[in-house]
Amino acid sequence: MNRIKTFLRELEEEALTTRKMLSIVPAEKFDWLPHQKSMTLKRLATHVAELPGWVSITLTTDELDFGDNTHVAPAIDNTADIIAVFEKNLIEAREQLVDKNEIVLDEPWTMRNGDQIYSTRAKTDIIRMSISQLIHHRAQLGVYLRLLDIPIPGSYGPSADETAL
Predict the structure, then answer these.
(1) Which CATH number covers residue 40?
(2) Under 8 Å between Cβ of 86 and 52
């Protein structure tokens, strides 16, 4: 199996759990944060929803320059908006995870802030990191929801809420 197909399969599998998690984020708690150094619930959920977009960014560009960043955070007013952002980014990722892009996976991709280079890695490594970040921040979102006493869905099996542990 080629790497593109592997990434697509993994992204589709993670999307199922991510969608369930994002769908229970309560809009009335958007401003909640567990610690002053933490993101708000809304910012974290939005970040999770945007992460599949890193796949298409990686496959259609050679770098991300935070010093010249034109990214505008999406308008999020409710939970449906978060899901819509996630679905949009998932569609864009699927559109780029096609066989013809297998050839560019070994090309370098740079993350920088102007002249300061944070990293230059193969595009395949950036896609792997993006999927890992999706999993990581989704788990972080699960902790937020747990702290808010919101029952969470299972990820790779039932959660404690689903098994009545």
Answers:
(1) 1.20.120.450
(2) yes
pLDDT for 101? 97
How many domains are there within the chain?
1
Residue 134 structural domain: 3-163
Q: Confidence band (pLDDT; 50, 70, 90) for 96?
A: very high
- Look at residue 65 and give its three-state secondary structure: strand
d(CA 57, CA 40): 25
β 63-65/116-122 pair status: unpaired
State residue 72's pLDDT score: 85
Q: What is the rounded distance in angstroms from the CA atom of residue 126 to the CA atom of residue 113? A: 17
* Sign of the alpha-carbon torsion through 146, 152, 156, 158: positive
Q: How far apart are CA 124 and CA 2, in angstroms?
A: 11
pTM over 0.85: yes
**Can you tell me whether residue 25 is helix, strand or coil?**
coil
